[in-house]
Amino acid sequence: MENLIKDNVGQPAYLENLYRSNPVEFADAFHVVYPEIQTELTAQIWHERLRNTPNEITWGTSKDWIFVAISALIVAFLMQMPDLFSISHDFYFPRNMAFIAMPGIAAFFAFKQDLSLKSILPPLGILLFSVVFINLLPVGPMSDTLLLSCIHLPILIWLLVGYIYSGAQLSQTEKRINFLRFHGDLLVMSAVILLAGGLFTALTINLFGLIGIKIEDFYFRYLVLSALPTVPLLATLLVQQNPTLVSKISPVIARIFTPLVSLMLIIFLLTFIYSGKDPYNDREFLLIFNGILIGVMALLLFSVSESTKDAASHFQRLSLIILAFLAIINNGIALSAIAFRLFELGITPNRFAVLGSNVLVLVNLVFVTRELLGLWKGVKGLKDVEASMTRFLPFYALWAAIVSFVFPLVFSFH
């Protein structure tokens, strides 16, 4: 995006189309390259425009809302399919939830960027193959490999969304980091919509209750169930049309919770050592421990992506380094426990899948920590940190695909 802006700074129409395709990415890239192009009149006009963005909310075009409305109807139909066609809920929802909400977001990005059919054929082919594969897995009690496929397929679909978001250019570090930043704003906006929806739900149910009509079962079964997966798509539209609406909230959240989580992890590790808890023979504890690690890793990646957006304070960067080191320690404990159980109790799909995931996360953490230390010492730049953080996205996608598609075959669907 930065190179496109610099190369086409004298073409107002091109810059306008570039801005409308992705306002958030355009604004971030423009502020980076503005010192190099500030002598251009067009650049000066854009600088004033982006600096003085109006406070009014932009609701998008009628085409945008028609697209969202059609997507919402499709989602509602997919959510009601089990009842319409007498399909078991236990069969349908674990296998297909990843294909209900996220493809709509990918389709929205493809629609806004006017991507060619050739660009979207690879992710579309993977999506269709995933739908067919997961629904053809043997019917019966939930096996370990089926559960692993249901858990890992959303990760693969999420990265396919990133591929579409980037305009089929996810190999570029800048595109990847913007995709991660987008999720911070998306989560904030989705939370606001859910809060408003919750208040509306409480008001509606209580109003009908006043006249003696109980609508809870109908309301939640048909309206809430059908509308809930549409929330991320609606949030995506609002975030894309109003890039400054919540863009300042995400960094605040990151800066508040990074030191708090670091402190919590220090206290937790000290308490863990003092309590003498044995993660090697306590499966439930190990599962919770890995859940904590996933949450810390997500916070670290989100915090790094927000902190590299501008000149973060020394305290913020120090907090990131501490959090990264603590995450490595947590990962090391979890990895040693998983390896112990694997060699002592034998190979199972769950143990092997978690082992591979933890190894990937550990290597990723080491690279990120190294670059953060270099940034702290002044020998590395923000781009180096961003590159180290996003470099492993293809490996996560590859591992998710292996666990989803290969494990059921290798372990005979057990």
Description:
The protein is mostly helical and 414 residues long. It folds into 3 domains: 50 residues, no CATH class; 180 residues, no CATH class; 132 residues, no CATH class. The protein contains 18 helices and no strands. It is globular.
Summed up:
This is DUF4153 domain-containing protein. This protein has 414 residues and is mainly α. It has three domains: 50 residues, no CATH class; 180 residues, no CATH class; 132 residues, no CATH class.
Query: Beta-strand percentage?
Result: under 5%
Question: What count of domains describes the coordinates?
Answer: 3
Largest sheet: none
Radius of gyration, in angstroms, nearest whole number: 23 Å
Give the end-to-end Cα distance, rounded to a whole number of Å: 47 Å
Transmembrane segments: 65-81, 120-140, 146-165, 186-213, 219-240, 252-273, 285-305, 317-340, 352-373, 393-413
Keywords: Membrane, Transmembrane, Transmembrane helix
Protein name: DUF4153 domain-containing protein
